[in-house]
Design a protein that fits this description.
heterodimer; A: Glutaredoxin; B: alpha+beta; Rubrerythrin, domain 2; Ferredoxin Thioredoxin Reductase; 2 domains; 3-stranded antiparallel sheet; two-stranded antiparallel sheet; globular
Chain lengths: 94, 143
């Protein structure tokens, strides 16, 4: 099963909006997102920074949250996206 | 070109930039700036009045900033409240009002780009977009 990461921020409204989508996708598909909060947990922030080369080109050349990432394929989606788009992306990773 | 520090010899305004302003914006004297060291600039700024800023003060500041521009503070009060909470948590924990919807790289100069308000008018989420907004949604194009 794919090891999917979700980088998010506690006070990021886009992340807050995406969280129920993520939980619904987990319930419907059996996939799991490893959720990493990056502004209050420095280890999680460092993990996100370690993937900067792969993430930044897909996110306006910055590190942005929310970002959904597959470390194996280096594929990423960032920002507030529609439920179906995120679900399709997640299924494509499995 | 690296930015440097400059001091107005008349009123002690401090400027941080690649060149000094021709006209001091405070005392209106021409050619008044002299280059100073970072240490001197920090001492001058650090010794000044210890102004503090609450989230409500910052809200008023960004509303005033937006008033002269083509954008406004997002009318969605709940969203703005959450963002202001994050901005102030970031200032407390990481030193500056970093955007809660991005992550600092730990490169000081690069991270200045994500201090709120950032230069979002050039970002793909705003530039040329009818309903454009900054990445976090704190600012939206005025209708």
């Amino acid at each position: 099963m794919a090891n999917l990461l979700m980088f998010h921020g506690r006070e990021c409204p886009h992340c807050k909006k995406m969280m129920p989508f993520v939980e619904k996708i987990e319930q419907e598909t059996g996939l799991r997102f490893d959720k990493r909060e990056v502004w209050h947990d420095e280890a999680n922030a460092d993990l996100m920074r370690s993937h900067r080369e792969d993430l930044a080109p897909k996110c306006g050349n910055q590190l942005r949250v929310p970002t959904f990432f597959n470390p194996e394929t280096k594929d990423a989606v960032c920002g507030e996206v529609e439920y179906e788009k995120l679900k399709d992306w997640a299924l494509k990773q499995s | 070109m690296k930015k440097r520090y400059w001091r107005c010899f008349v009123c002690n305004d401090i400027h941080y930039g690649i060149a000094p302003p021709e006209l001091c914006p405070t005392c209106k004297v021409l050619n008044a700036y002299v280059e100073i060291s970072a240490a001197e600039a920090r001492k001058i700024l650090g010794g000044g009045p210890n102004t503090s800023q609450t989230a409500e003060d910052f809200r008023a500041a960004i509303e005033s900033f937006a008033a002269g521009n083509e954008f406004e503070v997002n009318p969605d009060r709940e969203k703005v409240d959450l963002l202001l909470k994050g901005i102030f948590e970031n200032e407390l924990n990481h030193g500056l009002k970093y955007c809660p919807c991005r992550l600092r790289t730990k490169d000081w100069e690069e991270d200045l780009r994500i201090v709120c308000p950032c230069h979002f008018t050039i970002h793909e989420t705003y530039k040329g977009i009818k309903d454009g907004e900054c990445w976090c949604g704190l600012f939206v194009r005025r209708k």
